[in-house]
UniProtKB/TrEMBL annotation:
This is DUF2125 domain-containing protein. The lineage of its organism: Bacteria, Pseudomonadati, Pseudomonadota, Alphaproteobacteria, Rhodobacterales. Residues 385-430 are annotated as: Disordered. The keyword Signal applies. Residues 387-398, 410-424 have a biased composition (Acidic residues).
Length: 536
């Protein structure tokens, strides 16, 4: 289902965003058809007619099929008008119908009808056939889901999305390779829903985002990639590269849940989220797959009758920066992973649950982790199973059951099950060879921890038995342990063990009363030393 919904979302974006165009209506339409066919869609039209310089295409049907499901667009009408100045205006029908269907991971068949309304839409295309600019304007875009049918049973699924005043520009340079870049601004984005769960409960939600800005570019390789989703690995090797950015303004969202818990007792809850926005970027090419997210401050509050006070917390900011190689190579490739949370706070009522006397500092907490290194990629991330042979069928597994092997099943079933169990432990295709801890910093409950280090795998080994060193420094840990003991979170009878464990790994820093340090050394053969003393 996820793959079908993803395909549907991408196709919907392409439908409602500027399509390929040229200087005449016929060339605009044909370029649009060529584009969809190039990415694996089938385009059929019920008819077309010309009236002066205007071409109208009627009853357009765009379909896509994949292993996990299908997607179908029905467009009643597309009107393409020559403006007489080298530009072509394209206007889609105000309402489009989308149908998504397929099979979920549990084998159930589903279908979801989607209604799309884009009144007042307009697109102006200009330039040369091989180098064109498309300016678009969508005053409103409403996407509505009302029902979902699973195994023949229809259930309500009211979900609505709306975009207001979306404008932007797309620039397309055709050829081999072709190049595509775009920018778009949306004044506001709203959403709401009333979704039932599997046990008779309901989740009502609503929210708004004050402004979206997005931009991106893509280099598409030459060649016949009729289904980009299933041929991603080949496309990347042929030169496919893309990147994009999405920024948002203020975000407000809420939800209201009512239903029953696992014991059948009534339960309910309300949540509110308020955020100042985010900035997310994405990139993918044969060199790697990368995500970067910077989040501004946000607050979340949850109220439920099961808890006598609101559960709330806030974060001043956070970030994620990740880059992974995707293509198999003999040589090691770089990777990185960085994550941070800044200014994490909790409501006083939560603190009082375990610290009613306010013995612990309420200072905002923070966490920062920055890792980089080298890894070997032993198989392509986006290779389809058939490309590697990993999904070769067994001789006869028709008699296997979800619970195990049928008593009357042929012997090949045992082989199939053994292969399936072996596949569960199959390597991921990533083998880290060297890792640098550029930064690890934790500030919590008045204590601070900072660490750096570098580890590498032994010759012919893996990073699970590393060679290298880690240096860590601590401040305020002794004071924190004393405080935790005084409020009963560390029982007095365990204090001696805690102190002994701390002394084993940490040594006092000369000239300081509450600073300690640890030097961990990992040697070949698995030996580990802490401050010069072997601990393994």
């Amino acid at each position: 289902m996820f793959r079908s919904l993803t395909t549907s979302a991408l196709a919907l974006t392409a439908m409602t965003a500027p399509a390929f165009a040229d200087v005449t209506p016929e060339q605009v339409w044909q370029s649009w058809v060529d584009y969809y066919q190039s990415v694996g869609y089938t385009v059929a039209e019920g008819g077309r007619d010309m009236a002066g310089s205007t071409m109208t295409v009627r009853d357009v049907l765009i379909t896509s099929e994949s292993d996990s499901g299908s997607m179908e667009f029905k467009v009643p009408q597309v009107v393409l008008s020559d403006q007489g100045d080298g530009r072509v205006q394209t206007v889609f029908a105000d309402e489009l119908a989308v149908a998504v269907s397929g099979t979920d991971p549990d084998g159930g068949e589903y279908s979801v009808p989607v209604a799309v309304k884009i009144p007042g839409n307009s697109m102006l295309s200009s330039g040369a056939p091989e180098d064109m600019v498309h300016d678009f304007n969508y005053p409103t875009m409403d996407v509505a889901v009302k029902t979902m049918t699973t195994d023949g049973t229809e259930s309500p699924l009211p979900i609505n999305f709306a975009l207001t005043n979306s404008t932007g520009k797309v620039h397309i340079v055709s050829g081999a390779p072709s190049k595509y870049d775009y920018q778009m601004k949306t004044e506001a984005f709203t959403f709401d829903g009333d979704v039932p769960d599997d046990v008779g409960g309901k989740v009502k939600f609503a929210g708004s985002i004050d402004g979206f800005e997005s931009q991106g570019d893509m280099t598409a390789p030459g060649g016949d990639f009729t289904n980009m989703e299933e041929e991603m690995d080949a496309a990347l090797k042929a030169g496919l590269a893309m990147k994009g950015q999405l920024k948002s303004g203020v975000i407000n969202a809420n939800f209201d849940y009512s239903g029953t818990d696992e014991q059948g007792q009534p339960t309910s809850g309300k949540g509110d989220y308020k955020g100042e926005g985010f900035d997310a970027t994405f990139q993918m090419s044969q060199e790697g797959l990368g995500y970067k997210l910077d989040s501004d401050a946000f607050d979340f509050t949850l109220t439920t009758p099961q808890v006598p006070f609101p559960i709330s917390y806030g974060i001043k900011g956070g970030s994620l920066d990740m880059m992974l190689p995707v293509s198999q190579r003999d040589e090691a490739q770089p990777f990185r992973f960085a994550y941070s949370l800044d200014g994490v706070t909790m409501a006083e009522d939560i603190w009082k649950m375990f610290d009613p006397q306010a013995a612990l500092p309420r200072d905002p907490a923070s966490l920062s982790l920055d890792l980089s290194g080298l890894m070997k990629v032993t198989k392509d991330m986006f290779a389809m199973p058939d490309d590697t042979g990993d999904m070769a069928p067994a001789d006869d597994t028709d008699s296997a059951t979800a619970e195990g092997i049928a008593p009357d099943a042929p012997a090949d079933d045992a082989e199939a099950q053994a292969e399936a169990e072996a596949g569960a432990d199959e390597p991921t295709g990533f083998e880290p060879l060297q890792m640098t801890i550029n930064k690890f910093a934790l500030d919590l409950l008045g204590a601070k921890v900072n660490a750096t280090g570098e580890l590498k795998s032994a010759e012919g080994g893996n990073i699970e038995a590393p060679i290298g060193q880690i240096h860590a420094e601590y401040e305020g840990v002794n004071t924190l342990i004393d405080t935790l003991s005084s409020i009963g979170l560390i029982p007095q009878e365990q204090m001696m063990g805690v102190r002994m464990m701390l002394a084993m790994f940490a040594k006092p820093v000369e000239g300081s009363t509450d600073k300690m340090a640890t030097d961990l050394e990992f040697k070949e053969g698995g030996a580990i030393f802490a401050n010069g003393q072997q601990i393994r």
